[in-house]
Amino acid sequence: MLKTILFVPGFLKTQKDVEQIEQICGKLNEFVNPHGYEVLLSECGKQPSTLGIDDYAMMIAGEVDIYSPDAIIAFSMNTVSLRLLWARAKIKIPQILVEGPNAGTPVWKLLLMLTRFPITRQCIRDIRYSSKAMQVIKKNHPKGPVMEIQGKFSQWWLAKKVYEPLPQTEIYSLFPKIGHRALLTDPLVNKRMLDFLERFTVAEA
Predict the structure, then answer these.
(1) How far, in whole angstroms, is CA 121 from its chain's centroid?
(2) Potential cystine with 8: which of 42, 132, 166, 188 (Cβ 3.0-4.6 Å)?
(3) pLDDT tens digits, residue range 185-196?
(4) pLDDT single digits (tens) 3-43
């Protein structure tokens, strides 16, 4: 029986983004299936993002209850939603956070990045008009083993002088030449992910 990984993508602007995430999920499965894992795409990645950050956090919590995944991969802005759960739920399973903002992210850079989304989207309003998300990022720490991955995009949106890996991060990996979504399917990054999963889960090949 394959071990289950819940894949929670970032905010998606259009249906084309949804289709690209579905393709990425397929490629992830091609890589991990032979090693005893399967990747399930979260409902967060099945339609353009319109809900609030709290709503996505609750959606993730519900999926954790339903599927009982052995690990979670959260990407981009939905790493914020996952971090909301750290204050509410005792999620002790391994978590891989791929290029999401944290306490080292200047707010003005985060706001500039979010301008590519319609301001009417609730997930964006939560970031733009409230300090809640940034406070959550600063205060909440994971309850389970965590791997944090940053890539080329992080060189822009993270302030190098103040950025530090999460206090309880087991493994911190920086890939400064690999693009944002490309991180999810890069062979070297995937190998690092697999090494982390095999360290903290027991898969049946």
Answers:
(1) 19
(2) 42
(3) 999 999 999 999
(4) 999 999 999 989 999 999 999 999 999 999 999 999 999 99
Tokens for 126? 């939560």
Confidence of residue 111 (pLDDT cuts 50, 70, 90): confident
Q: Which tokens belong to 142?
A: 């994971």
Q: Domain locations in the chain?
A: 3-196
Contact between residue 148 and residue 165 where contact means Cβ atoms under 8 Å apart: yes
Which of 5-19, 29-43, 55-69, 125-139 has the weakest average pLDDT? 125-139
Contact 136, 80 (CB under 8 A): yes
Q: Tell me: domain 3-196, CATH 2.40.50.140, correct?
A: no
